[in-house]
Amino acid sequence: MITFDGVTKRYADGTVAVDDLSLEVPTGAITVFVGPSGCGKTTSLRMINRMIDPSQGRVLLDGKDVTTVDPATLRRGIGYVIQQAGLFPHRRIVDNVATVPLLLGWDKKKARDRAMELLERVGLDPKMARRYPFQLSGGQQQRVGVARALAADPPVLLMDEPFSAVDPIVRASLQEELLRLQSELHKTIVFVTHDIDEAVKLGDTVAVLRVGGKLAQIAAPADLLSGPADDFVREFLGRDRGIRRLGFVPAKDLALDPAPEGVTPEGHGTFNPARDSLRAALDAALLSPDGLAVAVDDDGRVLGVVGQAALVGAARG
Amino acid sequence: MDEPLVRWDWIARNWDNGGPTSVKVLLENHIVMAFVPVVAGLLIAIPLGLACARYRWLYQPTVGIMNVVYSLPSLALFSILLSVTGLTQTTVIIPLTLFSLAVLIPAVVDGMRSVPDHVRQSAVAMGFQPYRRLVSVELPIAVPVVLAGLRVAAVSSISLVSVGALIGQGGLGYLFIDGWQRQFYTPIVVGIVLVVALALVADLVIIAAQRLLTPWARRRA
Ligand SMILES: Nc1ncnc2c1ncn2[C@@H]1O[C@H](COP(=O)(O)OP(=O)(O)OP(=O)(O)O)[C@@H](O)[C@H]1O
Ligand SMILES: [Mg+2]
């Protein structure tokens, strides 16, 4: 667990980047820091691995004040991924990924084997291992950045707008990949973004910061969408909060009606109650000419139907 | 005049005649006097350049001094040094070293500045200590820019050595004075060809080193 305890950062020129920040980042979950440009997200993140030290207050990692730990030692146990990936241009991909293991004194063979394993894990072709960074696309470089951060299996991962420099399609696939990795690895991740959609998609917890470095609200994504604390958060969340919130409500509790004679998945919108959200179910109903969303199981068998009225009722909670 | 531009028999007789002004000896002297200042310059420029990159306030004064030195006529420098080092190769090597510093210090500084900030930051974040970061991340990335400076320094050093002929230590430069005094063109042509060839070879060697050392550098279109 990472704890911010009354943390303030005042830069030499007097700028207060972070103002009396107190919050907890739970172990094994993704916590997103989100907010407009200049609200102190990067500063907050860098106080965790001591690239910046607080002016006041403490940052605790598993109960221990990070400023009491040697910076290099601390950092080797914390993965760090940034927007431009920060790969070493003069090293091959495999050696980039093996960087931290080698710093930790692993032998070369073991470090390289580990690097190859990670490249595969983040979905990169092993052929890429011998290339130099300039020979990779932006999205591929980001994957290498993630692999490199994970190489020494650190319990904590800091990610500063890692996906904001790639196009929306690549970004979406990198986000999926991160969620998939996280479901296997259960790292303690602090993820910084200025994109609220990314925040609610990835975060188990979302901390909204406002300019001046103050915490505006910290909550689970669904709670954030249904109950913004003030006008700033409401404004920042943007339009369609109601619909977007439904993305976090599982469809499994919907009461299904028996499917009328002749209603088949063909020609209807379908959803899978075991996996999908209320939003998917509502979308399915809107796609069906008769307004019925057809519930199907993993094998495509029809479980029943739900009408629009029932869905709207469920959506209101 | 039916005198040919190049008298091949002169070249044959003077290439290796055992005397101190045989073309071979002049060529060897020329290489030494051109090479030593560049190597010495590089060895001095690396620490000075690193200091300038680290402490920004040092950079402007250093470059200022170097530019003043660069603007001094070599003859003036020779005259000052003559009283100390006499009519020796050292009198030529010292000013040329200063000239090469004027090129190499900015090259090292620019090289260090060519390290992208995000690369430096991520090295810090991965737990590199400052010395290891310098040696295994920053310096290797600076190599292409430093080598570009080295090419300029090497070629200009090779051409500048000739001026030393005015104090009797000019390597191939002797051939220019000799030819001019005797109104005899063969030594002049030989001198020019060898100096240009030397410059080309030095340049090619550095380019080859660059290819070898930095296969990662994006090939310029
Ligand atoms: N080294 C510095 N010296 C002075 N002020 C700084 C320094 N670094 C950042 N700041 C200021 O501190 C504030 C917070 O900066 P920070 O980089 O943490 O913001 P951010 O939320 O990460 O912004 P962005 O989304 O644009 O990356 C900004 O006003 C910034 O100008
Ligand atoms: Mg930032």
From TrEMBL, chain A:
Enzyme Commission number(s) from the entry: 7.6.2.9
Keywords for this protein: ATP-binding, Nucleotide-binding, Transport
GO molecular function list: ABC-type quaternary ammonium compound transporting activity; ATP binding; ATP hydrolysis activity
PROSITE patterns per record: ABC_TRANSPORTER_1, ABC_TRANSPORTER_2
Keyword set includes Nucleotide-binding: yes
Chain segments annotated as coiled-coil in the UniProt record: none
Keyword rRNA processing: no
Domain ABC transporter stretches: 2-237
PANTHER family with a match to the protein in the record: OSMOPROTECTANT IMPORT ATP-BINDING PROTEIN OSMV
Family statement drawn from the similarity comment of this UniProt entry: Belongs to the ABC transporter superfamily.
Name of the protein: ABC-type quaternary amine transporter
Species of provenance: Herbidospora solisilvae
TrEMBL record, chain B:
Signal peptide: none
Gene Ontology biological process terms in this record: glycine betaine transport; transmembrane transport
Superkingdom assignment: Bacteria
Keyword vocabulary terms for this entry: Membrane, Transmembrane, Transmembrane helix, Transport
Membrane topology recorded in Swiss-Prot or TrEMBL: Multi-pass membrane protein
Keyword Transport found: yes
InterPro entries attached to this UniProt entry: ABC_transp_perm/SBD (IPR051204), MetI-like (IPR000515), MetI-like_sf (IPR035906)
Every ABC transmembrane type-1 domain range: 27-206
Pfam families: BPD_transp_1
Transmembrane segments: 31-53, 65-86, 92-112, 158-177, 184-209
GO cellular component: plasma membrane
Presence of the UniProt keyword Transport in the record: yes
Major location (coarse): membrane
Compartments it resides in: Cell membrane; Membrane
Family of the protein in this entry: Belongs to the binding-protein-dependent transport system permease family.
Protein known as: ABC transporter permease subunit
